[in-house]
Design a protein that fits this description.
2 helices; mainly alpha; 0% strand; elongated; 61 residues
Length: 61
């Protein structure tokens, strides 16, 4: 199998979606309330950071 370069944008975006899923899973299994008004903005901020990190990493190459 041939190795490939790390795609930082996809990695961070995947981690953001996993974090959102874990937050809702913890909220469903415990008495912790997950406020949906915070989830979308934080997810979009995370995706924005992923986009910036990807563009900075490409600019360095």
């Amino acid at each position: 199998m041939q190795r490939h370069d790390l795609d930082l944008t996809s990695l961070v975006a995947g981690l953001v979606f996993v974090a959102i899923a874990v937050a809702y899973l913890v909220g469903a299994l415990t008495d912790v309330r997950v406020d949906g008004a915070w989830v979308l903005p934080l997810g979009l901020i995370g995706l924005g950071v992923a986009g910036l990190a990807g563009s900075v990493a490409r600019a360095r190459r």
